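Fig. S4 source data, part A: sequence.
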Amino acid sequence: MADKSRNTGKGIALAGLGALASCVSPERGLEKLAQQPSQPPVAANGRKPNEVDYSTKVADKYLARIGVIFADEPVIQNSLTYSNNNLPGLSLNYWENRLLGNGELTETDLTLRYGLSRENFDFSVKADYVFLDAFTSFRDALEIGASVSTRNLPVRLGGEIDAIFSPDNSRDVGFEYILSARKDVNLIGGLSANAWGDVHFNSHYFTPDSTFSVTNIGAGLNWDIFRNGLVNLGVSGQQQYTLGDNFEDQSLVGVSVGGSVKF
């Protein structure tokens, strides 16, 4: 009984980390609208199964969290996340952005993340390698970050700090500081709704001589078709407001399908 309780606790911790990722990285949260199950099943041997989370989103543009449009045309964004029961708390994610019209690949991200949960808080650290084919000051970049969010408040509050390094451009290290809030509500028949907002403070982050702030607000609906996390359909909207660097306010809408496969 003691072993089973410990493994069940690990399942709760991993589910909390899924919610944390949506909270502190809302643009990724909208790209991955699959609703996380509240508690993963436990195999007959008492171990949590391995898991692959998948999602595909179609949006009217690629609007980066820093206030820059990386693609001002319809895009398709695919994501795969793998977690292993022998490495609790650790996950590996692949994410890509393609132009919907011709399928051109414009960005790939590889993210290694480790997280853990306590009674009142979720914590995680990440390392993210990014390849960009866009009008930034670099093409490749390494981003490292740490985040924390609340667990038991009516609204999930989060904070994150990221640092970015560019190996192909001599420049200062860029920093980003994020404060966020998110609310999820279960409705009926596997349907849920969410609303979120965040504020990003950027210092030399994607442009070497730039300091600016970005505010995002968004909302979405998710439908867990089979009520087991296997297939989820989502629709979302986002409005972005930018101060500095003459960036214009922007909005986007998207639809997605995603879920979790356990084995």
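Fig. S4 source data, part B ends here. The CA atoms of residues 7 and 47 lie 6 Å apart.
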